[in-house]
């Protein structure tokens, strides 16, 4: 155990286990691993879905190599740290609600703020509601079992207002694709369809199955990355796959592979 922060009925912890350093939430009889990084390289995520965040700039490239990115939900901040390394000209805003999580990201996962990387300790929904900034990429990674306030059409409509004309939204949703544990995924899929259905869009989800995840567990807690482009000519899936193969992005070796199993959001809505 490297660090801990106590809450009334649970704990935030940083630990090292095997090849990984992990940020987790733990209570009586349960734990949720929020961030997993390789101890040998803290920029390399132990979760495949973090690699998938890089599909967003491939769908709608940053204008002239610059632009702005917003991460809602920080955790260990591997995604923002990867973006800062891969796209050094962009400005990055990171919103994390818990000050201890933000401090652990700095102290144990190598997250650094600076002139182009900004961290705000604030509720994600409140930030989106008060902000008037526009972003080329918005990454939402704030879920475990699904927060209803952050899954519905109202929040997505607010996010759409924060997108630049060719902006891309990427949202990580945890849950099953079908069956009794699929409510968060299906709720988010319907909201995506309702909010972005009238725009030129590229809507799809990628189920990310990690190497250390059993198929049974995957059916209960699988990460789905949902993407939408507003007012842009979306590339075909084949073109997106070509861009992923050609990319020199570090720490995203599974990026092209992730595009092999897209899920139609309309199908998710009906499951």
Key phrases:
271 residues, alpha/beta, 11 helices, 12 strands, 32% helix
Characterise this structure.
- The protein has 271 residues and is of the alpha/beta class.
- Helix 6 crosses helix 7 (183-196).
- Helices cover 32% and strands 30% of the residues.
- It has 11 helices and 12 strands.
- The chain has a 7-stranded mixed sheet, with helices on both faces. Strands 1-2-3-4-5 form a 5-stranded antiparallel sheet.
- Mean pLDDT is 83; it is low at 209-220.
Q: SS-based structural class?
A: alpha/beta
What spatial order of strands do you see in the largest sheet? Answer: 8-7-6-9-10-12-11
Q: Assembly type of the shown chains?
A: single chain
Approximate helicity band = 25-40%
The end-to-end distance, rounded to whole angstroms, is: 41 Å
Our count of helices gives 11
C-alpha-based Rg, rounded: 17 Å
Q: Beta fraction of the residues?
A: 25-35%
Number of DSSP strand runs:
12
Question: How would you describe the shape?
Answer: globular
Largest sheet descriptor = 7 strands, mixed
Question: Average pLDDT across residues?
Answer: 83
Which H/E pattern describes the elements?
A: EEEEEHHEHEHEHEHEHEHEHHH
